[in-house]
Design the sequence.
């Protein structure tokens, strides 16, 4: 027998109040229903820190393969037929959508391309780009940090990492928003799925050509490394590499945009901590970024497909059911963090799960942290008097899975 959430709590999970402030709902989940079936999401919900961590680590019973299959289950046959290319794609394995041993091979290939020296070498490029975006935005006294900086910076960088010339950046922006409107939302409509399918196919066609070109004319860049490297005689298959390019684009964009937006919002809405940061940036920037990642996790909810029926926390998870790991709820668990609802840029230790845990631990974490560090350094150096625009009501994005400001109006001084 499944323990189901009370219908009131069930409804709260998709309410506007949840988008605004999920933390009271998370608290109730941790106390009243630490592991329970959610009718609305049609998924198991796991909310306490230790359970979320154990769930992220459970590669015996939980799988990353065919996680999105469930989305097509209740679709009308006519809609499902129109989405055959999208369904085909979700049946492919890529670095995130695979389990060992395929995952082990693909992860090693991506890790090789995203090596520590490679990411470190991007710092100068990130600084030039971020300085350009910040200087352009701050020519007027009031600007939107999300539209002008947090949104474009990660997408430009990923387009460059994937080998695209500057004039093609707008394509990547469009593909990324279309694909994300479907992928990873946990719910979908056939209309959104069709738009996502069209953009995904365009991205694949584009990347296929670019990869073939790099194979003929190798360059000293990440996409050439991804296309050419073999470890123990094995590289990516064509489909695996295309799907991995999509993962790098989608996994790296919205999450980083939210990290940047949350960082600026949290620091400026805690002026005493902004001041503290200004007095000792070298020491405090790293711990401030970790605290932002904990306090407002950019990815609030991760998910897995049940691979083998098993019991977890007294509940029986059946094969092919979904499990939602509420990272955002785990980050406010008082069993793990002292005064979890307090934002504290000096917090240590801070063992958050913002980048996941264990074998699927985020491969872009170093890049995301570097982008955040560079942006923060430039803001502290060039716009130390920057303030939130008090006259504009603040609004979170309407997404349950991700958390970040919809827009963030700042005043230069
Ligand atoms: C603040 C920014 C980011 C956050 C919060 C974040 C979060 C995550 C999380 C939670 C996972 C684990 C998924 C799972 O267990 O199924 C993950 C995996 C991954 N992320 Fe990120 N991510 C961020 C930035 C990036 C960037 C910038 C890139 C690349 C450019 C990236 C690429 C990946 C990849 C390739 C994986 C799959 C790793 C694997 O399955 O072995 N991420 N990320």
Sequence:
């Amino acid at each position: 027998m499944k323990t189901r959430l009370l219908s009131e709590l069930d409804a709260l999970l998709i309410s506007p109040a949840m988008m605004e402030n999920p933390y009271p709902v998370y608290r109730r989940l941790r106390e009243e229903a630490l592991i329970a079936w959610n009718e609305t999401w049609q998924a198991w919900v796991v909310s306490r820190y230790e359970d979320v961590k154990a769930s992220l680590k459970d590669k015996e019973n939980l799988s990353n393969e065919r996680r999105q299959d469930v989305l097509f289950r209740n679709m009308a046959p006519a809609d499902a037929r129109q989405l055959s290319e999208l369904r085909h794609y979700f049946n492919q394995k890529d670095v995130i959508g695979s389990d060992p041993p395929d995952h082990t091979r693909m992860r090693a290939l991506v890790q090789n391309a995203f090596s520590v020296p490679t990411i470190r070498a991007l710092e100068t490029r990130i600084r030039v780009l971020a300085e350009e975006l910040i200087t352009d935005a701050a020519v007027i006294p009031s600007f939107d940090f999300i539209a002008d900086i947090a949104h474009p910076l990660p997408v430009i960088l990923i387009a460059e990492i994937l080998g695209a010339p500057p004039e093609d950046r707008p394509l990547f922006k469009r593909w990324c928003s279309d694909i994300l409107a479907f992928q990873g939302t946990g719910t979908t409509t056939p209309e959104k799925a069709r738009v996502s399918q069209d953009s995904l196919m365009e991205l694949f066609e584009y990347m296929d050509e670019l990869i073939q070109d790099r194979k003929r004319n190798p360059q000293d860049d990440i996409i050439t490394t991804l296309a050419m490297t073999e470890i123990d005689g094995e590289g990516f298959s064509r489909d695996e590499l295309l799907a991995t390019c999509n993962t790098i684009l989608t996994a790296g964009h919205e999450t980083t945009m939210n990290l940047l937006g949350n960082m600026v919002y949290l620091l400026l809405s805690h002026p005493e901590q902004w001041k503290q940061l200004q007095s000792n940036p070298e020491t405090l920037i790293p711990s401030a970024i970790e605290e932002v990642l904990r306090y407002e996790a950019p990815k609030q909810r991760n998910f897995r497909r049940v691979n083998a029926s098993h019991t977890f926390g007294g509940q029986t998870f059946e094969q092919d059911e979904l499990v939602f790991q509420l990272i955002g709820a785990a980050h406010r668990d008082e069993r793990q963090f002292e005064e979890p609802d307090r934002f504290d840029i000096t917090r240590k230790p801070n063992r958050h799960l913002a980048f996941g845990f264990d074998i699927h631990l985020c491969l872009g974490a170093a890049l995301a942290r570097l982008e955040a560090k560079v942006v923060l350094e430039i803001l502290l150096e060039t716009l130390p008097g920057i303030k939130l625009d008090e006259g504009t009501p603040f609004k979170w994005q309407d997404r349950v899975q991700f958390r970040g400001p919809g827009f963030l109006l700042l005043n230069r001084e």
Q: What stands out?
A: The two ends are 59 Å apart (CA to CA). The chain has a mean pLDDT of 93. The chain has one domain: 7-411.
